[in-house]
Amino acid sequence: MADDPLSRSPADGVSEDQLFDRERHIRYLEMNYQILPSPYEGQEINHLTLAYFIISGLHILHALDRIDREDVINWVLSLQAHPKNEDDLNNGQFYGFHGSKSSQFDSVDNVVSVPNNSHLASTYCALAILKIVDYDFSLIDSSSISKSMKHLQQSDGSFMPIHTGAETDLRFVYCAAVISSLLDNWSGVDKEKAKNYILSCQSYDGGFGLIPGQESHGGATYCAVASLRLMGFIEDDLVSKCTSSCIIDVPLLLEWCLQRQAVDGGFQGRPNKISDTCYAFWIGGVLKILGANKFMNERTLREFLLTCQSKYGGFSKFPRQLPDLYHSYYGFTAFSMLQETGLNSLNIELGISTIHHTLI
Ligand SMILES: [Zn+2]
């Protein structure tokens, strides 16, 4: 294996904890893939989201051969909610994907219409997984998804993730944008309204809050900028282009993002918070979209992230803690952005790797 460009050994004088341990990360994801979903059954987080972290993580790590493609496709497709007929598409419900089997209600013999509970975030994860395994998207009933998703958009332009009774914020605008982009069908989104909602979330300090008037936050800022990019309202590399005509305040946004890199090299989600692995992606990703990643200190960011790398594989939220799938995934995406050897490159806006047919 000495010639394998994907493996780096610590034998060249670099200590082990200074290296990104790709093999151990693959084993960590493989272990989670094999035992999914039973250990997480008690958690609120849905199985599709966990599967997205595992499968997309393996793709970033160039190890998609560890999964059974057909099994994955069949399982994801089994979670899709289907309208019984064309009229159902006007009943206000969303026909996307369920987060897990347990949220699929059996409505046979039920006279009353039972909500199907499919969710925008689950739908984003389902479509992302299908994209990663190179499923043929012409086989997906995209018009049911788009037509019913239209009902989730509120009059202020925001999105509700399910058909009724949930909060609306930038996260779900982002989910709707990714879904539309993956399906290549934007008929489910009033882009102009969505844009105005996003712009109303930019705070006085340049970052974005989850809803208008809320404190700026790294995750919300990513959702705002990535959505605007997916909808075509902003270009890549904004920082090097004329910014005075841009619909967002780029200099203030840039300053807010750069100030989130703390003295330990990691990124914090908000001022006065400690560095957390996931913000290396949420805020590092915004800087990358803006074409401003050259202004962050990549060396110290890498050093911080390696203090969160677990000896069991995966990444933790804070240094020297136990890993979890969420922070592991965003650790991998961060190392991909840092151009770690042997990792697939990322589509920052979509949050997945860009390279397909890499099953070897
Ligand atoms: Zn975090």
UniProtKB/TrEMBL annotation:
GO terms under cellular component = CAAX-protein geranylgeranyltransferase complex
Pfam families for this protein: Prenyltrans
Q: Which cofactors does this gene product need?
A: Mg(2+); Zn(2+)
Give an example GO biological process. Answer: response to water deprivation
Q: Where is the Prenyltransferase alpha-alpha toroid domain?
A: 20-348
GO MF terms, alphabetically ordered? CAAX-protein geranylgeranyltransferase activity; metal ion binding
Keyword annotations for this protein, in alphabetical order, are: Magnesium, Metal-binding, Prenyltransferase, Repeat, Transferase, Zinc
The record, for InterPro entries, names:
GGTase_I_beta, PGGT1B-like, Prenyltrans, Terpenoid_cyclase/PrenylTrfase
EC number from the UniProt entry: 2.5.1.59
Looking up PANTHER family in the UniProt record yields: GERANYLGERANYL TRANSFERASE TYPE BETA SUBUNIT, GERANYLGERANYL TRANSFERASE TYPE-1 SUBUNIT BETA
Q: What family, per the record?
A: Belongs to the protein prenyltransferase subunit beta family.
Name under which the protein is recorded: Geranylgeranyl transferase type-1 subunit beta
Identify the gene encoding this protein.
Answer: ATGGT-IB
